[in-house]
Amino acid sequence: MLQDIDIGFLPATELGALYRRKSLSPVEVAQAILRHIEAQEPRLNATTMLTPELALQQARAAEAAFQKGEATGPLTGIPVTLKDLHPTKGILTEHGSRIMKGNVPDQDTPSIARLHAAGTVTVAKTTSPEFGWKGVSQSPLTGITSNPWKLGYNAGASSAGAGAAAAAGYGPLHLGSDGAGSIRMPSHFCGIYGLKATFGRVPIWPMSNNDYATHIGPMTRTVADAALMLRAMAGPHPWDAASLPADPTDYAAHLKRDMKGVRIAYSPDLGHARVDPEVATLVEKAVQAFVDMGATVEQVTPAWGPFGPDIERVLWPAAYVARARYLPEWEAQMDPGLVALIKEGLTLSARDFTTAREKKFAWIGQIHDFFEEWDFLLTPAVSVAAFPAERLQPEHWPQHPWNWLMWAEFSYPFNHSGNPAASVPCGFTPAGLPVGLQIVGKRFDDLGVLQASAAFEQARPWADKRPPV
Description:
Blueprint: H1 4-8, H2 12-20, H3 26-44, E1 47-50, H4 52-67, E2 79-83, H5 110-117, E3 121-126, E4 138-139, E5 143-144, E6 146-147, E7 150-154, H6 160-167, E8 173-178, H7 184-190, E9 193-196, E10 215-220, H8 223-233, E11 263-266, H9 277-292, E12 296-299, H10 308-320, H11 327-330, H12 336-346, H13 350-370, E13 376-380, H14 413-417, E14 421-428, E15 434-441, H15 446-459
Parallel strand pairs: 2-3, 2-8, 11-12, 11-13
Antiparallel strand pairs: 1-3, 4-5, 6-7, 8-10, 9-10, 9-14, 13-15, 14-15
Helix pairs in contact: 3-4, 6-7, 8-15, 10-12, 10-13
């Protein structure tokens, strides 16, 4: 008989098959996962709240659909967690901030509405740093969210709760969003799979101030589960003027691809980024897997790489400066790093912002020109492995009141360029902490990134590895 924890680690692809064979029911699975989360949460703190009433209501509806032979979708009855930054109708959405404590939206964001329509079962909301501003799993409202591989250590960025939940077996599907790396960074730190889809592939609402750089995507333990989740959420929506036309591709049905002859660029540092040696070594070994699969792999130093820091150090404070309206009343109760970031934003002029934006568009053009020559780019997902979550930077890195971007230089370029990018688990440091390989594809080639990820997953499997907690 399966234990609660074993059920929590089952992928969506297996759960669906078990439902159809009537070996498990959606209600049994929802109850088991809720029990498992309750048992783990005192230590991990990955959720802001459980949603047992909603979960059981949705699970009973899914079970009835299976009994009537009406369960046609691959996500019917599949548990999901939803990120605290995403509006959920009738459910607390507090953005990791005391300012938003008690906030209950009256509408779902489109991606969540689509997951509901696909038959998923919502078991919890997951934690985020305050307004998603940093790459560390801590907020004034919820405290530290621990990495399941080492308690008290960073689970990473605004989708940190989702990353920790996926790693700890809180079900197969977890909703993430990514404005500078917040899907890929928790995936790297927690040893799971995360895909930042092409910008516009999944509609966003409310639209972020992040100058068309925020993306929504799946966080899962397997590539196939991410493919199923992405297809359920993708497609245009009138609330998001930048959302893309529907892609009819059944991603999960087309994951197999021969890597022979595929053109892959590998950059260990994008020409400027500092990387800890233990991360660099694991990523270099992971790249070899594509060589072994017959891909054409060449180490490169992209000319556009070094332009990123100067651009992002203007655009990131600018994205948060509107929240200066909270400072007179709330400053003492806000994350001090967020306050420092906002105050940095207040020093910027309109000329500073528009100049950085002008440079950004030229930079994006260079990134897309680069991908004319390559099918994929491989890099580290993040420069460091997990570190204590009370810190903004690892102890051995330079310190700064708000600049955590110095150890996350590989992710935000592809937020601005809109390319699909994934973090795939590629090994563990000597201390037993996960490391991720980033796979970046041409814009619109979400299927290609999923296929490259699946090929690596087959060559270097990771989903059987469970954290010690």
